[in-house]
Q: What sequence folds into this?
């Protein structure tokens, strides 16, 4: 018995002829934050439904807290799971407070927590207003409060920052970090989240129901061997003169350097007296995502041709 | 809190909040009081009607209204939550599909039952003040119980519709058709068979066919307790049947439990 919170072993899920997920292997440790990325229809939501025990896998094993989430014995475990669905509009006629109290009762969560969570997501002022008067962002915050009910050990958040303003997004990531340090595992599901990099331990990229890349961001960056972008100021034309640097140049003050060469190049740049500023940028999550996505699409196309 | 109770409480509070309970109770009360005081106007007399006439006319009106109200109250119970995404969310909570179904049934069933009790009960109170108390209460208690059962049975049928339909508007359409079928078409077809085929139906056979319609069952229960002189129409034939009100109520209960069972079966198979 390992201490994985979540294990998926060669899981397949079909909806009729449509293959939603194929040969998925995934593990999640306690306190791990996993980013699950993929385009629309890549199978992210299906994966969440499998983990939540709403749908059954056609093949393979799903185990959450060591139990099959579809089985009756796993119901108690659901108190430890928080879920934020992608589009949820809640009960329009009820107030925010009433909605959250209802979910708290269903989860047997402490009543005091309802007020605390409303405060935390910044809805205390609007808690007595009907949900139908809420903006998209307020609904999203109510959804988050709902997911944080109880003391979740596993959180599945589908597009958590959609509709949130920058302040609320920052607050959200703070909560994620807090929950992580208290030992909760979190799956963040998204197309690409701006600013998510610092908060996730591992990333999984899905394309057409298959995992095309899996690992920490550093590992993914290495595998993808995407260049580091270095922008300098003050050197201008002098860059062209240096033979070792000229090959990396893409414009007058920008260099694209492979990861292993990075330090050497920076050292060399520092020898220029005129350098006034330097900006080193590793490939962003977005670039990594596009890289893997294009790779897998190219692979699919060549497979189709050869068939 | 027990999840069934939590759901039931929420559904009941919803019924209070959107004034369903209040408006149904008022409709029932106005109907019952109106009919018991002015029911004989139609026959040209201005005196309060006899108790059995009141019950007879009340039940022939209620048989249209109660199923309609129950269907309106519950047709979107599941399909509505599915459209707003809360059904998916609820199913990730520590509550089974059966518990959710039962919770909703208890909550919304309480709304209908309480409305019949308060609405028709108020009329019974008024009648009791002016008349024979025991007589009024025995007649009305059977009427109120059977009305509630009729409501519950159509709630259960509404759940089946709500679970089968993929859109709210479709559910509303199916609910309306179901209502038409049970309160109108069924009886018309029965009448047609009765008239069209000579000796095709025995009286016993007719009553047995009526068991397949909860609305007719409701009429049978109430009319079988009355004296035949106050009843006319097809049902007069059925009044002298061998079934006691008690047996009929048991069959009515089956009309609640079996649809609920089917609803549960559909719910477990449904992919969200």
A:
């Amino acid at each position: 018995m390992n201490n994985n919170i979540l294990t998926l072993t060669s899981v397949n899920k079909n909806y009729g002829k449509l293959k939603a997920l194929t040969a998925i292997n995934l593990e999640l440790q306690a306190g791990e934050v996993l980013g699950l990325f993929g385009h629309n229809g890549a199978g992210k939501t299906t994966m969440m439904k499998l983990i939540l025990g709403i749908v059954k896998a056609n093949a393979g094993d799903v185990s959450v807290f060591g139990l099959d989430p579809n089985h009756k014995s796993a119901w108690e475990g659901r108190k430890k799971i928080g879920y934020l669905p992608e589009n949820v509009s809640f009960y329009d006629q009820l107030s925010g407070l009433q909605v959250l109290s209802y979910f708290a009762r269903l989860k047997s969560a402490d009543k005091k927590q309802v007020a605390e969570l409303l405060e935390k997501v910044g809805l205390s002022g609007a808690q007595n207003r009907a949900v139908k008067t809420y903006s998209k962002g307020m609904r999203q915050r109510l959804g988050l409060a709902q997911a944080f009910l109880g003391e979740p050990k596993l959180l599945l958040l589908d597009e958590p920052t959609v509709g949130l303003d920058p302040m609320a997004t920052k607050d959200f990531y703070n909560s994620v970090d807090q929950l992580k340090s208290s030992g909760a595992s979190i799956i963040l599901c998204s197309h690409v989240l701006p600013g998510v990099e610092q908060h996730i331990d591992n990333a999984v990229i899905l394309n057409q129901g298959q995992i095309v890349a899996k690992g920490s961001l550093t590992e993914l960056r290495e595998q993808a061997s995407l260049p580091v972008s270095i922008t300098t100021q003050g050197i201008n034309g002098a860059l062209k003169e240096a033979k070792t640097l000229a090959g990396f140049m893409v414009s007058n003050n920008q260099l694209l350097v492979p990861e292993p060469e990075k330090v050497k190049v920076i050292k060399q740049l520092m020898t220029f007296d005129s350098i006034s500023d330097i900006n080193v940028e590793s490939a962003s999550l977005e670039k990594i995502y596009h890289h893997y996505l294009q790779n897998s699409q190219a692979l699919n196309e060549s497979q189709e041709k050869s068939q | 809190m027990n999840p069934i109770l939590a759901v039931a409480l929420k559904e009941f509070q919803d019924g209070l909040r959107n004034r369903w309970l209040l408006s149904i109770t008022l409709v029932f009360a106005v109907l019952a009081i109106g009919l018991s005081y002015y029911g004989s106007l139609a026959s040209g007399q201005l005196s309060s009607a006899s108790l059995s006439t009141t019950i007879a006319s009340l039940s022939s009106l209620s048989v249209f209204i109660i199923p309609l109200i129950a269907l309106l109250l519950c047709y979107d119970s599941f399909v509505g939550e599915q459209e707003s995404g809360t059904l998916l969310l609820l199913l990730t909570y520590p509550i089974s599909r059966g518990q959710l179904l039962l919770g909703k049934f208890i909550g919304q069933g309480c709304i209908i039952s309480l409305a019949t009790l308060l609405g028709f009960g108020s009329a019974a109170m008024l009648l009791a003040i002016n008349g024979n108390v025991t007589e009024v209460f025995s007649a009305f208690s059977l009427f109120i119980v059977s009305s509630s059962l009729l409501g519950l049975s159509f709630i259960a049928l509404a759940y089946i519709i709500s679970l089968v339909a993929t859109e709210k508007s479709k559910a509303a359409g199916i609910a309306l058709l179901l209502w038409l079928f049970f309160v109108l078409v069924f009886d018309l077809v029965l009448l047609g068979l009765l008239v069209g085929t000579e000796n095709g139906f025995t009286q016993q056979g007719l009553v047995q066919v009526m068991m397949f319609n909860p609305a007719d069952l409701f009429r049978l229960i109430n009319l079988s307790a009355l004296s035949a002189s106050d009843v006319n129409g097809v049902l007069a034939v059925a009044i002298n049947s061998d079934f006691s009100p008690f047996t009929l109520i048991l069959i009515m209960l089956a009309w609640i439990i079996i649809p609920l069972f089917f609803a549960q079966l559909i719910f477990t198979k449904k992919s969200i």
Notes: The longest helix of chain A spans residues 285-306. The interface with chain B takes residues 49, 52-55, 72, 75-76, 78-79, 81, 83, 85, 87-94, 102-103, 105-108, 146 of chain A (CB under 8 Å). The mean pLDDT of chain A is 86.
